[in-house]
């Protein structure tokens, strides 16, 4: 499930943000959550083996016109602004929607914004093949170590076999982490009619292979999470084809694809459901 959140500034005719504004959006989301849920996501999160997942994703900011550049580091947005917040965990979306509709402000950098509307959507899939369009770039990487022990990231490209292997393996891990959640989820998980027991895994149709590849032209995008970051994150925008069990396809729509979802990477929307 997802929210389309619409924002307007309390004053002024434009919104000025650094190009690396993702950390402002992430902070705004955490600020709307209940203390218990925020602490859980900040802390252990949804665990699978040694991996921890936040299981929410958000898009880049949208505005009526493309933002204007002011130098190399600043963007000027014409209001209203909007972004998508998506999660398979309805508690996250409910907390955010309640906070926004109660009139709480969102602080993005030096901009004080208020919510002018929230739209709720529940895109669902019943098939095994989806064409997905990115709402924020999909990133995929491995962390290696130099000879001196310092870590560094190796980013993969869609034409590399490792790209699809890591995307699909990451999606399976998210599924396992969600189904094994110890956090007391009080609302149904998106795509389910009833609240499942956290200890009851949902079986996957293992006869359906999980595949991921570009479905047309894609292009590379680089960016930073925060202006203070010295390293670039590399991702890919465009249209992709995802094939596999319906449960995993639904999770991709709700939780995002690839790494750094809770930092604003890997948000996707349904372009079309593809018949076999």
UniProtKB/TrEMBL annotation:
It comes from the Bacteria. The active site is at 30 (proton acceptor), 42 (proton donor). GO terms for biological process: defense response to virus. The keyword RNA-binding applies. GO terms for molecular function: hydrolase activity, acting on ester bonds; RNA binding. Signal peptide: none annotated. The keyword Chaperone does not apply. Keywords: Antiviral defense, RNA-binding. Residues 123-270 form the CRISPR associated protein Cas6 C-terminal domain. Coiled coil: none annotated. Pfam families: Cas6_I-A, Cas_Cas6_C. InterPro entries: Cas_Cas6_C, CRISPR-assoc_prot_Cas6, CRISPR-assoc_prot_Cas6_N_sf. Belongs to the CRISPR-associated protein Cas6/Cse3/CasE family. This is CRISPR-associated protein Cas6.
């Amino acid at each position: 499930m997802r929210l389309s959140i619409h924002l307007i500034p309390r004053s002024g005719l434009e919104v000025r943000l650094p190009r690396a504004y993702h950390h402002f959006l992430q902070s705004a989301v955490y600020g709307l959550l209940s203390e218990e849920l925020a602490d859980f996501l900040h802390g252990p999160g949804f665990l699978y083996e040694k991996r921890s997942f936040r299981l929410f994703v958000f898009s880049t900011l949208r505005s009526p016109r493309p933002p204007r550049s002011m130098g190399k580091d600043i963007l000027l947005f014409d209001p209203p602004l909007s972004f998508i917040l998506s999660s398979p965990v309805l508690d996250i979306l409910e907390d955010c929607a309640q906070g926004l509709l109660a009139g709480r402000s969102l602080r993005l950098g030096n901009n004080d914004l208020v919510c002018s509307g929230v739209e709720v959507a529940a895109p669902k899939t019943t098939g095994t093949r989806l064409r997905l369009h990115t709402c924020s770039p999909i990133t995929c990487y491995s962390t290696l170590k130099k000879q001196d022990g310092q870590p560094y990231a190796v980013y993969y490209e869609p034409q590399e076999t490792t790209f699809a292997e890591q995307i699909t393996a990451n999606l399976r891990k998210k599924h396992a982490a969600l189904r094994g959640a110890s956090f007391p989820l009080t609302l149904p998980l998106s795509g389910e009619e009833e609240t499942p027991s956290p200890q009851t895994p949902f079986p996957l149709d293992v006869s359906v292979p999980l595949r991921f590849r570009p479905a047309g032209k894609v292009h590379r995008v680089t960016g930073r999470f925060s202006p203070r970051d010295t390293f670039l994150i590399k991702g890919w925008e465009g249209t992709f084809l995802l094939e596999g069990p319906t449960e995993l396809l639904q999770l991709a729509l709700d939780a995002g694809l690839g790494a750094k979802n809770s930092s604003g990477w890997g948000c996707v929307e349904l372009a079309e459901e593809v018949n076999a």
